[in-house]
Amino acid sequence: MTRPAHASDPTQTLLTLLDLDDLGGARTDKDVFVGPSERQPRHRVFGGQVLAQSLVAAGRTVAEGRHVHSMHAYFLRPGDADTSITFGVERLRDGRSFSARQVHAYQDGMPILSMITSFQEPAEGLDHQSPMPEGIPDPESLPSTADLLGEIDHPVAQYWAYDRPVDVRHVNPAVYVSASGERIARNAVWMKTFSPMPDDEALHRAALAYASDYTLLEPVLRRHGLSWITPGMSVASLDHAMWWHRPVRVDDWLLYVQESPSAQGARGLGAGRIFNRQGVHVASVAQEGMVRLPYLDGPS
């Protein structure tokens, strides 16, 4: 389905989100940055946005040439998508090869996310990877989100169809509005930005963190026959861990293969591996999320 003529370039929206203001180098006991929030139909900050912006803030404080290789983050409070976010970066350590940073994202003086992340200079060493799954259809043969949701007259459907900066195409039948397929704890999507990105490895890694938060809990939903519009269901990301293994470009197609090894106690775990189209394993991700259903809720 063709994007509406009036629609702005969503990739440019992503680049604007990642262009943080350093307030002229202002510092307290931390480096301080401010970033905008992305418009959301439910007025709640998308978790991937805060992850990506936190990585950009941390990266601004490390030596040139050191790229993020891992991060571990906790979502502490829902964010307000109508309010900017302040990022405070603490310089934990700078070694010969590695730099460690702690980032807190704030709104109204309260932390909404806490992250520790590590950066490394390029180095030679042992090298192996898991293989990319075989038999996956090409992304061009799969329907886009706009194809699936573009005719639905609802703000969330229209936002997902036309305003998200990443083109997401499901290998398994999408669980946007129904989950009538096989109940398996697996999911796979192709994804890439709609337009080219600058040749900046740090931006590509941050953008991949942004996109990694889209579908990682879908294996939990698929396993139990749930869709994103299941009545009364409440889903929220609790934490997010990510490891970058090799250079990546998010403006080329990436295959995101996901599974859920466990769900229990109103929580579900999603784990994912990301491959480029040539089969190179570029990143791994894990996330636990709250998944509450009204007919299963116990005491809070």
Automatic annotation (TrEMBL):
Location of the Acyl-CoA thioesterase 2 C-terminal domain: 175-290
SUPFAM superfamilies: Thioesterase/thiol ester dehydrase-isomerase (SSF54637)
Ranges where the Acyl-CoA thioesterase-like N-terminal HotDog domain occurs: 43-120
Pfam family, one: 4HBT_3
Top-level lineage group: Bacteria
Family under the similarity heading: Belongs to the C/M/P thioester hydrolase family.
Name under which the protein is recorded: Acyl-CoA thioesterase II
Organismal lineage: Bacteria, Bacillati, Actinomycetota, Actinomycetes, Micrococcales
